[in-house]
């Protein structure tokens, strides 16, 4: 019961953005997509859920072909939390979350009390129930991110696509949110495909990683096997070192951080590769 992306390609006009991208994500697994700015991460998410038409290749979820499926069928199998979220009609947060039920409603029907209860329940699980009656346009960027995550979780239990979910979040909330997402997905068996800019967040929270360089997958597999300094040096085109904490946690830093003048006067960082 996997999401299977096979030989997916996409171009904007004559500019090839994705080249034969293939990977799989099982139920309950968190897959991080890593790559430099402009490497095609957001484009990949848009192609997976049919917002952009793939030039070739296939995408299936639990054996169901997503590229030929109708919008509602796709929406029941995949939900996308976008990177940017501008102002919308001044809906309450609860109304925005309940929009996650749209794919399940008939043309003229309205969300039921049960839909609203489920929306409130998801907000509570994300510790965001205090926002329920606020105007969506008047909450902070990080709070909006959380509300759109709640909407996506209400939309489907199958697959969550997240474009830079930590974008608007402070240092503490980045860890809180990813930790909650991982727990929720394990409990519900939801697959997560998330683009991340910080390889350390991927190392801590993801099960698998796909490294995308100029639209081509250069490495993929379990984080513990694939996330090596040489692979990250190649991906980000900057020499990268691994630092292992006393607790055994592996973290990565570009060498330029270790050489930065700010380290003057501090004990030298212990790096082991
Ligand atoms: N509408 C568009 N028309 C033409 N080219 C585009 C369009 N949108 C994006 N691109 C180009 O496609 C490439 C991939 O963009 P994409 O947004 O997928 O990269 P990304 O890896 O998500 O980048 P970032 O990490 O900066 O968000 C970039 O070269 C970008 O300039």
Summary of the model, kept short:
This protein has 273 residues and is an alpha/beta fold.
Large-scale geometry: globular
Structure annotation, total helices: 10
Indicate the CATH class: Alpha Beta
In total, the number of strands is 12
Biggest β-sheet: strands ordered side by side in the sheet: 6-7-8-3-9-10
Give the termini distance in whole angstroms: 37 Å
Tell me about the largest β-sheet.
Answer: 6 strands, mixed
**Share of β-strand residues:** 25-35%
Q: CATH topology, anyone? A: Rossmann fold
What is the CATH homology-level superfamily?
A: P-loop containing nucleotide triphosphate hydrolases
Quickly give the structural class. Answer: alpha/beta
Gyration radius, rounded: 20 Å
Fraction of residues in helix? 25-40%
The SSE string, one letter per element, is EEEHEEHEHHHEHEHEEHHEEH
What would the average pLDDT be, to the nearest integer? 91
Please give the CATH architecture.
3-Layer(aba) Sandwich
The number of domains: 1
Which spans have pLDDT < 50 for at least 5 consecutive residues?
A: none
List each distinct ligand once: adenosine-5'-triphosphate
Pfam family, one: ABC_tran
Function: Part of the ABC transporter complex HmuTUV involved in hemin import. Responsible for energy coupling to the transport system.
GO molecular function: ATP binding; ATP hydrolysis activity
InterPro entries: AAA+_ATPase, ABC_transporter-like_ATP-bd, ABC_transporter-like_CS, P-loop_NTPase
């Amino acid at each position: 019961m996997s999401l299977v992306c096979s030989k997916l390609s996409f171009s904007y006009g004559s500019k090839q953005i994705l080249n034969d991208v293939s990977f799989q994500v099982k139920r309950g697994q968190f897959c991080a997509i890593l790559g430099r700015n402009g490497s095609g991460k957001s484009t990949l998410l848009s192609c997976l859920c049919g917002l952009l038409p793939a030039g070739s290749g296939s995408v299936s979820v639990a054996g169901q072909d997503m590229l030929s499926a109708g919008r509602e069928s796709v929406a029941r199998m995949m939900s996308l939390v976008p990177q940017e979220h501008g102002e919308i009609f001044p809906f309450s947060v609860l109304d925005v979350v309940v929009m996650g039920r749209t794919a399940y409603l008939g043309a003229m029907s309205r969300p039921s009390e049960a839909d609203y209860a489920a929306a409130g329940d998801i907000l509570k699980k994300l510790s965001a129930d205090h926002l329920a009656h606020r105007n969506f346009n008047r909450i902070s960027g990080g709070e909006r991110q959380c509300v759109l995550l709640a909407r996506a979780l209400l939309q489907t239990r199958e697959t969550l696509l997240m474009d830079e979910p930590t974008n608007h979040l402070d240092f503490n909330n980045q860890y809180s949110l990813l930790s909650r997402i991982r727990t929720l997905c394990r409990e519900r068996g939801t697959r997560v495909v998330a683009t991340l800019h910080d390889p350390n967040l991927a190392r801590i929270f993801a099960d698998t990683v796909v490294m995308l360089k100029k639209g081509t997958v250069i490495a993929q597999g379990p984080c513990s096997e694939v996330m090596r300094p040489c692979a990250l040096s190649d991906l980000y085109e900057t020499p990268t070192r691994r630092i292992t904490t006393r607790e055994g946690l592996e973290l990565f830093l570009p060498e330029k951080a270790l050489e930065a003048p700010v380290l003057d006067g501090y004990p030298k960082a212990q790096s082991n590769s």
